[in-house]
């Protein structure tokens, strides 16, 4: 068990190195520079030239990359050109917001998807199954940002149940109110994210349950005289949750991708919004740092999936 | 054949499956008796309804997709009248079933011990320790060398033969009166086959159980069965003792089957091949002898319009009248043969 995990972690090291090179080169390959747009348009090109030079932007890429890596190991991701603030501090404050949003979204997603998937699979072909399937198809067909806009319009504007921007009300005081206000702001984006996130899990789980229902081992269990509800409890649920459990690690990736849309549409100050803004400002230091963080989180998600799978599926355990 | 040990009496049982909204008989009007201390073999080619008969006795069909009629009298109870909950008192406890494919019939995520003791969870009041002891005893009975070790393993760690032994252990855990073995040796190689059949026979002797052995392997039948029922296209076409079936087969289908077995002392190397196929459920002829299209040289007048069982000797019954004067084409004089 520990050997499996150790081996997986060791494999991650070259992956991270390659990822960091790719990320760095991609950021450099973007056209434009960080200064032209932010300084007075009448500024002397020589001055911009000078700024580029003192920031080392004319050095060969491997030298720039090496400088970046050395600084990285000192916990220094450089300063944001746009915000004139250390990137670590800039991302740190946003990361907390994104983390909360992702956590609440994930809890809501699984709380909705697991019962829906199992219920649909169990009552395959009957009315509730059809309703759930139509829901998943419709949700799957609509682009995520359209769902967000429709959600904001209905729940934020027409019904007015939830705030539609920001992460906290400006006039909040006291820690209890702070938590309350943050949670209140998270609710709508999290619910909408969950509605979208359930689709894959519901469809997966539904077909797993249907497969398990028809499997030979379930027939064996029936021949043992095990009552139907115990067959679901002891045989079908556990076996069909297996791929879903393995999916959990990957779903972190989905949440982070989703957060880019959600945060932009809701102007929610998290990593996703920062990412979109820093791309439009060519804020290289922030972009590379963010892409690297996203990439590493993806790798961790995959690792987590593998670990979960090796715990729940005896066939994958390595002695 | 009425006698005191006759404890399973299948009377006029038909099972129909729903295909595109219509019900089609997979087995029709089957009559069979099983006695204690005997192995009844049901033989026939793929698709003849052998397994459907087994799963009908076990009550494993989805009532929404099947229609079952007739009566299955098991020790005085008509199984077909039971609710699913009542049926659960029989399944596993009084009737055990051994499945065809040992590779998929066990839950891949549960330890062997849990899968065997699950039967006892529902049909006995044994304590945890007693169940554990019983599991080890069962594994030993079915010929597993190291029960302690196997009990803690997962199915994927066992070979096919060992998994089939585990499935047998599950089927006999509660000492059922009736064991239905649905092609228990099909997925196994020949040496393991013989061992598994030995295990089955030993269990039967000890428990005085009746065994229904479903197979398409006539070698297995010859080796183990006391009585044989031959099925074709959902009907029983011939039944009798193993000696009667093998020594004096009557029905053309039985004779064709036996003739298509490779024989060591046959000077002719060609195997006999039965022409044609088993008709699909939708295309099953509703009148006449269902085997008639596959013996086209036999004139229609030789068949009955609604074939019934005829007793040719005590305990030996044959369907339809076409068995009288039946000959294979190469035995008939040239000229009267029609292709």
From TrEMBL, chain A:
GO-annotated biological processes: transmembrane transport
Lipid bilayer topology: Multi-pass membrane protein
GO cellular component: plasma membrane
Record keywords, A-Z: Cell membrane, Membrane, Transmembrane, Transmembrane helix, Transport
Transmembrane intervals: 9-27, 99-122, 134-162, 182-205, 241-266, 286-312
Predominant location category: membrane
Keyword Lipoprotein carried by entry: no
Domain ABC transmembrane type-1 as annotated: residue spans: 95-305
Pfam families linked: BPD_transp_1, BPD_transp_1_N
Places the protein is found: Cell membrane
PANTHER family hit by this protein: DIPEPTIDE TRANSPORT SYSTEM PERMEASE PROTEIN DPPB-RELATED (PTHR43163:SF6)
Family listed: Belongs to the binding-protein-dependent transport system permease family.
Protein name: ABC-type dipeptide oligopeptide nickel transport system, permease component
Organism: Levilactobacillus spicheri DSM 15429
TrEMBL record, chain B:
Presence of keyword Cell membrane: yes
Cross-referenced InterPro entries: AAA+_ATPase (IPR003593), ABC_Ni/Peptide_Import (IPR050388), ABC_transporter-like_ATP-bd (IPR003439), ABC_transporter-like_CS (IPR017871), Oligopep_ABC_C (IPR013563), P-loop_NTPase (IPR027417)
Keyword RNA-binding: no
Keywords in alphabetical order: ATP-binding, Cell membrane, Membrane, Nucleotide-binding, Transport
Gene Ontology terms for molecular function: ATP binding
CDD domains with a match to the protein in the record: ABC_NikE_OppD_transporters
Superkingdom of the source species: Bacteria
Membrane topology classification: Peripheral membrane protein
Segments forming domain ABC transporter: 8-258
Protein family per UniProt: Belongs to the ABC transporter superfamily.
Protein's name according to its UniProt entry: Dipeptide/oligopeptide/nickel ABC transporter ATP-binding protein
